[in-house]
Amino acid sequence: MTALSRGRAAVATARRPARWPAAVLAVLLVAALATPAARAGVPAGVPIARLHTTGKVIALSFDDGPQVTPVLDTLLAVLASRHVHATFFVIGDELVRVPDVGRRLLAAGHELGNHTWTHPHLDSIDVDSMRFELARTDSLLHALGAKGRILLRPPYGAFDEPVLRELKRERRTVALFDVDPSYDFPGIANADSVEAKTVEWLGPGSILVMHPWYEHGGETMRMLPVVLDWLERLGYRIVTVSELLKTKHATPEVSLYHKAE
């Protein structure tokens, strides 16, 4: 294991105290691969953290919101100037208040993903409530112009076995992430160091999540252009999560996330 891998494992262990044993995850992955997948090569109902691929491609995603704030215009301008499309995992109860933001994101070529209607821990609500959270958000996204099956990102990365059984039954593609600067580097005060660490941790097939809304907005907008320019210099192509999951000859990595505290 490299020093970087050991560092990732140490932080992952600190942030994700409740992990499934590798054997359980392996059985889950094999079982999912035996059923029709929501996307080619990606098993339904299995939380994917990243892909193992040799191609220099990284997916960019944003969680929560959206909101009508000055951050929105700046964010879209940063992405447009670099010809980058991203996946926005939105909260239905917030998007329904600003539907034009959803239409604007889609018109700019971005993808909308389901981050539930009210942002609950899915492992703390019953199945009927979870179905309502997901279906209502899907309906809103389709009404605004989203096409096809919609990616899901569970809030807080929280799930348990009953949640995954239901998501598999619904043939949901569950897309989490492997790098989140807001939480992976809480002890680093220097912005330049956070940006450097973010790029260091990213690799072929990574899924990067950032939080442009709420208290993280200023930090995200300071980091985003620097990280994107750095990745471009390193030869990476930045895509939506759905585009990443279509990568050929790639193996999905099951997320380490389980029950959130």
Walkthrough of the structure:
The protein is built from 11 helices and 8 strands. By secondary structure, the chain is α/β, with parallel strands linked by helices. The longest helix has 18 residues, at 127-144. 39% of the residues are buried. The model is unreliable at 1-38 (pLDDT under 50).
SSE class: alpha/beta
Elements, N to C (H/E): HHEEHEHHEHHEHHEHEHE
Poorly predicted spans: 1-38
Q: Could you give me the name of the CATH homologous superfamily? A: Glycoside hydrolase/deacetylase
Tally of DSSP helical segments: 11
User: Which CATH architecture would you pick?
Assistant: Alpha-Beta Barrel
Helix residue percentage: 40-55%
Give the percentage of residues in beta strands: 5-15%
> How many strands appear in the DSSP assignment?
8
Average the pLDDT over all residues and give the rounded result.
Answer: 84
Taking the sheet with the most strands, its summary is: 5 strands, parallel
CATH C-level label: Alpha Beta
